[in-house]
Design a protein that fits this description.
The chain is α/β, with parallel strands linked by helices. Helix content is about 40%, strand content about 25%. The termini are far apart.
């Protein structure tokens, strides 16, 4: 059975105006891919009833599944239930199941159930509720022009919590649709063109049954291996093994693995700890580490030493060294790492000091220059790199490099990462 035609309708003036960045359609697309479904068309409409009704009628005539995202809240511009009822030529009714959900939701938060909240219980007659484990507004679904219209909240965390239920509904409705299976490899340190070129150079027998795809991001790149039939799982696994042989040192994990997560897992296995000493990243490395549940097992302290005075006061960086070499220098970043190890008692340290820009660069140390130190007491390495990008991306990439260098050290990887070559400066580095 062919996969159903799926369309997506995003609603809201805030999405049209760019005040809210649409991440929900990406989430929906990724989850639908688990069933072998893809989105044929995506339309975004503001909070205009006539336009919304027109789109609902038009898309439902064309699609087998229409997912509507947004417009389920308690305010006057949340119109999805109202316009769907009008498009279907039916009225609204108070859903007792939605009322019960609202009462439970409010009671858990010690809040009173008010008239604005009760608006979320007015649903199209005959609509089937989709539970919302997180938010106040239930989702719902209704048949329109022989299309199943699934209405979901615009809040990403609420949509995410409802997607399992939605996928189960679609799986039951379209049992013969061909499912896909996607193996995702999380990589760091190479761009997608470099990955593709290496694959082309080193694989001559890539099977037609395994689709190769990429999703570029900062700081990680996702490589996707997709099969349309589980009978091809062995071929897919063989492709995965080939990729590990070609550039395994740049693969940090599978699924949703992030760099900080991979580092923490290795530290836990070794029963060791890490600390950070940050200047140009302003605590971003520590933040990435502490985002991971259970990070306290391997992380007790990080130091944000933005000024020279604090570098000297908190980490014991020599004022003479700062004066002679400047904050963005190899001697300073080495002393930052040593000071953090000494103060925290951790086993490993990452230290960074750089010129994030857009100002502050010199001919000797242009914007984007960063010194990174990493390692253990008595065995700290350092390297100077340059990321001539905007300030935010500079911080993102520097933080990721620091984590990746510790990951490589923990795994005993001897290969030189590509970014040492691609981002090298003319300043000397010690090894």
């Amino acid at each position: 059975m062919a996969a159903p035609i799926v369309e997506l309708l995003l609603t809201g003036n805030e999405v049209m105006a760019g005040d809210t960045v649409d991440s929900n359609s990406s989430m929906i697309a990724h989850r639908l891919a688990e069933l072998g479904f893809s989105i044929r068309r995506k339309v975004t409409v503001g909070d205009e009833p006539a336009l919304l009704i027109e789109e609902l009628q038009d898309q439902s005539r064309r699609a087998d599944v229409l997912i509507v995202n947004g417009g389920l809240g308690p305010t006057v511009d949340d119109l999805t239930a109202q316009v769907l009822a009008q498009a279907a030529g039916i009225g609204l009714e108070v859903s007792q199941n939605a009322i019960q959900h609202l009462e439970t939701w409010c009671a858990a938060r010690g809040a009173a159930l008010n008239a604005a909240n009760l608006k979320q219980a007015d649903l199209p007659v005959g609509a089937e509720i989709i539970p919302n484990p997180v938010g106040s507004a239930v989702g719902f679904q209704l048949e329109l022009n022989e299309c199943i219209v699934i209405c979901t909240p615009g809040v990403p965390s609420e949509l995410r919590a409802m997607m399992d239920h939605i996928l189960n509904t679609l799986r039951q409705r379209f049992p013969g649709a061909q499912a896909t299976d996607v193996l995702r490899l999380q990589c760091f340190g190479m761009g997608e063109s470099a990955f593709q070129q290496l694959i082309s150079d080193h694989t001559s027998n890539w099977p037609d049954t395994v689709e190769l795809g990429f999703r570029a991001g900062a700081p990680q790149l996702e490589v996707k291996l997709t099969i349309r039939d589980l009978a091809h799982a062995a071929a897919r696994d063989q492709c995965r093994d080939q990729l590990h042989e070609i550039f395994g040192d740049h693969i940090i994990g599978e699924g949703d693995t992030r760099l900080a997560e991979a580092v923490l897992q290795l530290l836990r296995e070794k029963k060791q700890t890490i600390t950070t000493a940050e200047s140009c990243t302003g605590g971003l490395i520590a933040s990435l580490i502490t985002e991971v549940p259970g990070s306290s097992e391997a992380f007790e302290a990080g130091y944000v030493t933005y000024s020279n005075r604090i570098k000297a006061l908190e980490l014991g960086v020599s004022t003479d060294t700062l004066e002679v070499h400047g904050a963005v220098s190899e001697p300073v970043v080495l002393q930052m790492a040593e000071g953090a190890l000494r103060a925290s008692g951790a086993d490993y340290a990452i230290a960074v000091s750089g010129v994030a820009g857009p100002d502050g660069g010199t001919e000797e140390k242009p914007v984007g220059t960063v010194w990174i130190a990493w390692g253990q007491t008595g065995a700290i390495q350092s390297r100077c790199l340059r990321y001539n990008t905007n300030r935010k991306l500079f911080q993102t990439m520097v933080a990721a490099v620091g984590l990746d260098l510790i990951r490589r050290q923990l795994l005993g990887i001897a290969q030189t990462p590509r970014y040492f070559i691609e981002r090298k400066t003319n300043l000397p580095a010690s090894n």
